[in-house]
Specification:
By secondary structure, the chain is mainly beta. The chain folds into two domains: 164 residues, no CATH class; 79 residues, Immunoglobulin-like (Sandwich). Helices cover 7% and strands 48% of the residues. It has an eight-stranded antiparallel beta sheet with strand order 6-5-4-3-2-1-12-13, with no helix packed on it. The chain has a five-stranded antiparallel beta sheet with strand order 7-8-9-10-11, with no helix packed on it. Strands 15-21-20-17-18 form a five-stranded mixed beta sheet. The termini are far apart.
C-alpha cells in the first residue's frame, strides 16, 4: 500500500484530474449569438436538427436563424472523438474542412483558410457550466481573444472560430441543450431561447438539401466588388430563381435575376448575406455569408 501511495504522489495532478473529452452534441443543441457589423448587432442562432449521410459518413445538420425569423440550412458536421476534432461540410460543398481541434496545447499557433487572423493558444482553462459541471477550454490570445469550450465550441459563435474583423464579428450569448441553459456566456439579453426540436420548423427533405448543393456563391471574402454565382444547368433553371443581398440588419440591398457575375452595390466593410430564392414561393434555398473589406 505504501508503494502504491508513493506512485500516486508521483503522478502529475493534471493527469489524475484529467476530464474525459466532451464532443459537440449531435441533437437538441442550440447556440444564441449576436452578430455585429455596420449598423449594430442582430440575433444569429444555430441549432442541430437531424442527420445526413455524405460520402458514407454520418453528419449532423446545422441550421441558422437570421434576423430572428429566416431559417436556412447552414452546414453538416461530425465529431472525431478519438482525435478530439470537429469536421464541417458547408452548404453547397461536399468537401469537409476542420472546424475545431480540441487537442491543442499552450504555444500552438493556428491559421486556417477561413480565419481572419492567427490564433495562438495562451492558456488551457476550466469553464464552469450552469449545473456546476466543468469543461476544458482553450484560450486564444490577442488580437482577438476567444475560447474554444469542449462540447460547445467557440465564444465567437459555433460556426465562426477565428473570424473577427473591425466591422464584422459574432459573440456567443448562450448555449442550450434540450432547451435548458447550459452556459450563459455573454450579452445583456436573457437566455430565453426555446425551440421545438421534433420538427425544427424547416423542411429537411433530401430534395431541398440537393437543391442547396447545386449553387455556389464565392468568394466569401470580397475585396474587388464582385461575386460569382455558379449552378448546375442540368438541374437548375435559372429563370425560376432570383438572388438577393442583405446587410446585417436584414435590409435588402439588391434583388437580381440569377446571373453568373454580380457587381455589389456597396463597398462598405462588413458582413452581408446572399440568398437565393424560388420565384414561385419566395422560399430561400441557399444562403451564403460574405465579408466585404476595402
Amino acid at each position: 500500500m505504501k508503494q502504491l501511495l508513493t506512485f500516486l504522489l508521483l503522478i502529475p495532478f493534471s493527469i489524475l484530474g484529467a476530464q474525459d473529452y466532451v464532443p459537440i452534441p449531435t441533437s437538441g443543441a442550440a447556440w444564441s449569438n449576436t452578430m455585429y457589423g455596420v449598423g449594430g448587432g442582430i440575433p444569429s442562432d444555430f441549432y442541430v436538427c437531424g442527420d445526413t449521410m455524405i460520402s458514407g459518413r454520418e453528419y449532423h445538420k446545422l441550421y441558422v436563424v437570421l434576423w430572428g425569423s429566416s431559417t436556412v440550412y447552414g452546414a453538416a458536421y461530425r465529431n472525431d472523438s478519438e482525435e478530439k476534432k470537429v469536421w464541417l461540410i458547408p452548404m453547397g460543398s461536399t468537401e469537409e474542412k476542420l472546424l475545431y481541434d480540441f487537442d491543442l496545447e499552450v504555444g500552438q499557433v493556428l491559421y486556417w483558410p477561413d480565419f481572419t487572423h492567427e490564433l495562438e493558444v495562451v492558456a488551457i482553462e476550466t469553464i464552469t457550466l450552469s449545473d456546476g459541471e466543468e469543461r476544458r477550454a482553450i484560450r486564444f490570445g490577442k488580437p482577438y481573444p476567444e475560447l474554444w469550450i469542449e462540447g460547445i465550441g467557440s465564444t465567437r459563435g459555433f460556426g465562426s472560430p477565428g473570424f473577427v474583423a473591425p466591422d464584422a464579428t459574432t459573440d456567443l450569448n448562450c448555449f442550450y441543450q434540450d432547451n435548458e441553459v447550459v452556459l450563459h456566456y455573454s450579452g445583456s439579453s436573457e437566455c430565453d431561447f426555446s425551440f421545438d426540436f421534433s420538427s425544427c420548423g424547416v423542411s429537411t427533405s433530401v430534395e431541398n438539401v440537393e437543391i442547396e448543393n447545386e449553387f455556389q456563391i464565392f468568394p466569401t471574402k470580397v475585396d474587388d466588388g464582385n461575386i460569382q454565382v455558379k449552378w448546375n444547368p442540368s438541374v437548375i433553371l435559372s429563370n425560376k430563381y432570383e438572388i438577393r443581398l442583405h446587410d446585417i440588419s436584414g435590409k435588402e440591398l439588391l434583388r437580381s435575376e440569377l446571373i453568373p457575375n454580380i457587381e455589389l452595390p456597396t463597398n462598405d466593410s462588413g458582413i452581408y448575406f446572399f440568398t437565393i430564392h424560388r420565384k414561385s414561393t419566395g422560399k430561400v434555398v441557399r444562403t451564403e455569408r460574405v465579408f466585404i473589406h476595402e
